[in-house]
Amino acid sequence: MTLEEILIEKPTERAQGTGSALEEVLVSAKDNDSITVGVYECAKVMNLDPDSVSFCVLAMDEEFECDIALQIHFTLIQSFCFDNDISIVRVSDMQRLAEIVGDKAEQLEDAHCVLITNPADGSWEDPALEKLHLFCEESRRINDWVPEISLPER
Length: 154
What we know:
Elements: H1 3-8, H2 11-31, E1 35-37, H3 39-48, E2 53-59, H4 68-83, E3 87-91, H5 94-101, E4 113-117, H6 127-141, E5 148-149
Parallel strand pairs: 2-3, 3-5
Antiparallel strand pairs: 1-4, 2-4
Helix pairs in contact: 2-6
């Protein structure tokens, strides 16, 4: 998909398509044990093995908008992603993100940051992940450095 095709596409269709792709990638990464959840856990992975990180999702709900510490963490994570050419998006529904990446048995309190990592053997590839990388690349071309994606409702 070219930039012109994306710009012509209706914004709601574009968001829905990328939201579905993001959900598909998150489920697939979870099944392949290629996912890290939580701000501190993600920071550890980024520090120890930044080359393994393929994609970053930041989630914000209204109740956390005034959390200065979380905003500082987000700024540092975004900077790290930009410096290491890691695609990054925002979602506005942390609860929905937690539903997708968490197990039914556990309640995820910190789903503010989710990383999708590449397995060491490189065996996992997902066409939806390529679509998300292209979406991020095209968004950067129109100066939307951290695009927001809406996850589909259940």
